[in-house]
Here is the input.
Amino acid sequence: KSQLIEALVGMRAPLAGRVVVLGRDVTSADVARHRAAGLSYIPADRQRVGLALQARISENAAIGRETSPAFRRGPFLRRDAMVRFARQLIERYAIKAAGPNARSASLSGGNKQKLVVGRELSRDTPLVIAENPTWGVDIGAIDFIHRELIRMRDAGHAVLLISTELDEVIALSDRIFVLADGRIAGEFSAATADRLAIGALMTSRDQPRQAA
Here is the structure.
C-alpha cells in the first residue's frame, strides 16, 4: 500500500507500469510535476509528511503554492496573501487555532489533519489521493473529513481513498479494489461490498472477484 502511494505521488520510482494523470505520463517525474499534472495528496503521516510543524499555519497552508502569482511577487513571498488564505482555510474547515501566525505544532491532531485536508482539497485538482485521512482524529473531525471527501466526489473529482479502516472504505467508496501480495486480488462495487469477502481477499484466501 505505502509503496503504491509513493509511486503514484512521485516519491518512489515504480519498477514497472506507468503513472498517467489526465493523459500526462508522469512516471519518471518528481512530486512537483505529479501535483502540477492535477493531483492532490493527503498523507497518512501529518506530523512528518503533511506539515512542517515549526512553521506557521499560514506557511503550511501555502505549501505547493509558493510560485503562484497570488502568493509571490518577484523573488519575495506575499506574506499578507498567505495570511488571508490561511484565515479562509481556518474558517472554511473549522480549524481551531490561535490564528494564521500560530505554529502548526500548537494545533491538536484533528486540527492538524483538517489543515492538511483543507490545503489539499482547496487546490481543486481533478484527482485527490487520501491516505488514511482520518487516522488518529476525533469523531467530529472524522465526520467532517468524510463529508468533504464526498463533496469532492459529488463535484466530479476522482478520489482515491486508501485506508486501513475497512468500515471507512465500505462507507465512502463507489468501487473497492483489494490488494494482496502486490497485485489486485479483487474488485467490489459499493452494492456488493462484503467485509468477509474483502477480508478473505486481503489475506489471499480467495480467488479474484469482479464487481457485480
